[in-house]
Design goal:
Layout (H helix, E strand, L loop, with lengths): L15 E5 L2 E4 L4 E4 L2 H4 L8 H13 L11 H13 L4 E7 L2 H20 L6 E5 L8 H6 L17 E2 L19 H13 L4 E6 L16 H11 L3 E5 L23 E4 L11 E6 H8 L15 H16 L2 H20 L5 E7 L2 E6 L15 H11 L2 E2 L1 E4 L8 E5 L7 H21 L5
Length: 445
């Protein structure tokens, strides 16, 4: 018996042996397409020689130093590079160890900004959306609008949530082509209900990730959100922990929506799974408010800004630029989305295929006409995932997206250097898995 405390204590897991490019191999020698890059993490695939070399070179020098006493060349260089890439005046990089730490840091940074700016402030609440995921720490889970928060509700901050930008299941009964983007205007209603004097920020993913499977908002969604935030003196936090660094076809996903947020939370693809890392990219205005105020952001994590992770991130981001990975994500992603729609939508249990770049989602339904979901007890997303594993494909399943309890979907987020030929291989294997699942679906209890 293993002494590891796994998330799902009764689940039998594959044992990974090695990885190469978009593929993973188990200890029995079986080969799998890592079609979710772990959890939208391994953007440059596995065993990338440039990143491995950068890790080794930095480890030979120094792997760890604490930011309370030391700076280092890697963190300065990666901050300069990110400042060049990020939109507007988003020039200041606050480094942490992962996505939950990044969104938690943004929460505190938003509160601290108003206290620094105004001397004292009643602004502290963060508005987010239902059917969102922002992390697993208490603060980040308070902002999350997903079923994963339910068991911990007594521990969470009482933050408000608004309607999701979920066009397939529009909470206002509209369609994207003719709607008035009511889901964006819902923010203003929440601000009025809460009182703008108590609201510090609004946080949202530009393309929804784990909670809904790659939902893409209306093209004007974030323009409306930006206008509302500006009108009520509220910060806009862009959560790109999943969508950032080329995943949706631009270096930062928000670029396609034509607005500049006040902060961008990043992680995952910034170090591509080679070393734990996360960050908040903040506007100069926020940084200068701290600088000209107390001079201190009262916050920190032990491994934040360690030289090894920073050196890895520097190598990853340089490689993303050099190999034009974001463009490949956009081009191959458009091709893959077209192929998946053509090949998967004919299945009776596939309700929607959606996404942007190489952040794609497939929603499973019991009735395509009514969009009725399967009962959560049937575990359809997990069962389909297990079937796909047999065909050599690893995806990222989720549930609860339809009504907070029921609903099944999975995320497809392969490494960003996937080729069209490999995309064809992925589609072929997925279709084979879907056919097997379709054949057996009547016997699933």
């Amino acid at each position: 018996m293993s002494n590891v405390f796994y998330r799902a204590v009764n689940k039998k897991l594959l044992e990974v042996d090695r990885g190469e490019g978009i593929y993973l191999y188990d200890t029995d020698g079986n080969k799998y397409i890592d079609a979710c890059a772990g959890a939208a993490v391994s953007n440059l695939g596995h065993a990338h020689p440039v990143i491995l070399e950068a890790m080794m070179e930095q480890a030979k020098k120094v792997a760890f130093s604490h930011l309370s006493r030391w700076t280092s060349k890697p963190i300065q260089e990666v901050a300069d590079l990110v400042a060049e890439l990020a939109p507007g005046s988003l020039n200041k990089l606050y480094l942490v160890s992962g996505g939950s730490e990044a969104t938690e840091s943004a929460l505190k940074m938003a509160r601290g900004y108003f206290v620094e700016r105004d001397g004292q402030s009643s602004k502290y609440r963060i508005i987010s959306r239902w059917k969102s995921f922002h992390g697993n720490t208490i603060g980040s889970l308070s902002m999350t609008g997903d079923k994963r928060r339910k068991k911990y509700t007594p521990l969470l901050l009482n933050f408000p949530h608004i309607a999701p930008a979920y066009c397939y299941r529009c909470p206002f009964g509209k369609c994207q082509e003719t709607c008035q983007v009511d889901c964006a205007h819902d923010l203003e209603q929440a601000i009025k209900m809460e009182g703008a004097e108590y609201v510090a920020a609004f946080i949202a993913e530009p393309v929804g990730g784990a909670a809904c499977g790659a939902i893409v908002p209306h093209k004007d969604y974030f323009k409306i959100i930006r206008q509302i935030c500006d009108h009520y003196d509220i910060l806009l936090i862009d959560d790109e922990v999943m969508a950032g660094f080329g995943r949706t076809g631009t270096m930062f996903s928000i670029e396609d929506f034509g607005v500049v947020p006040d902060m961008i939370c990043v992680a995952k693809g910034m170090s591509a799974g080679y070393s734990p890392l996360g960050a908040v990219i903040a506007k100069d205005e926020i940084y200068n408010t701290y600088k000209n105020g107390s001079g201190i952001f009262v916050h920190g994590h032990t491994y934040g800004g360690n030289p090894l992770s920073a050196a890895v991130a520097l190598a990853v981001v340089k490689t993303l630029i050099k190999d034009n990975i974001a463009a490949n994500s956009r081009t191959v992603g458009e091709y893959l989305l077209k192929e998946l729609k053509e090949k998967l939508l004919p299945f009776s249990f596939v309700g929607d295929v959606r996404g942007k770049g190489l952040m794609l989602g497939v929603e499973i339904v019991k009735d395509k006409a009514t969009k009725e979901p399967y009962p959560v007890a049937m575990g359809m997303a997990e069962k389909l995932t297990v079937t796909l594993v047999k065909h050599g494909v690893i995806v990222y399943p989720g549930n609860g997206n339809a009504d907070g309890v029921n609903g099944d979907q999975f995320l497809l987020a392969p490494p960003l250097m996937i080729t069209k030929d490999q995309a064809d291989e992925l589609v072929e294997k997925m279709v084979a898995g879907f056919k097997e699942f379709d054949k057996n679906i009547g016997s699933i209890k």
